[in-house]
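In this supplementary section we document a worked example of the pipeline. Step one takes a protein sequence of length 257 as its only input; no multiple sequence alignment statistics are reported here. Step two produces a three-dimensional model, which step three serialises into structure tokens for compact storage. The input and output of this example are shown verbatim.
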Amino acid sequence: MIIREYWTTTAKYYDLFHSNRKEDVEFWTSIAARTGGSVLEIGCGTGRVGLEIARNGNRLCGIDQSDTILDVFRQKLTTESDDVRQRVQLHQGDMRTFRLNQQFELALIPFRPLQHMLTLEDQIAALTNARRHLTTGGILGFDVFFPNFSSFDQPDGVEKLEREWIDGEGRTVRRFFLRHRVDKVNQVIYASFIFRIYRGGDLIAEEISPLNMSYYTYPHLRLLLKLSRFELVEEYGSFTRESIAVHQEMILLAQAV
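The serialised model returned by step three reads:
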């Protein structure tokens, strides 16, 4: 058994695990197409969202705290056309503290990086920093999951198989989710991902990756936006633009004021 930091296992397995996730890519690409200008993607990861935005014609400035993950994005760019490569700039940095000498009309934090901000201070710092990099009237878009409060009362310490796939070497990889505890006061879920690799039915490797995530309520998000000088302008509960009241996502677009 090997315990690795979250970002290392994310870089190795992220794209294969999320290969069927398309709706959010189409949604954020359509939002970027509205502006037609440069897009700041905070928590750009392996480029699952940002690369498609660049392919669609927008310039992309990607920020991520993990150089290991950015290396995956950089490798992808080597197979793209010159036009796409020239539209993309990547920077290593913390979403709370990075500084660019540039402002944007659109900043995105897609697929829940904001949930890695575990304290109120970190959440405000991240949103305030996003505001700093937007023009007045610019748009910030992000998504977080709508918390399933009933699940918090289920027993901790139970492994749940989420998905399995075949890797590039023909091995079976299974990802399990293991929740350790829920801090209902500070709204943090303490958990781990467990990756088990099999060859011919035999377990040959196991990696554990700690994953701690904050969860938000709707009024909590509204207040964070107000404190960070944003005004909510659109909200959805799914990437097909259904009501926020009846689905599992909270997808918010807010204007910098």
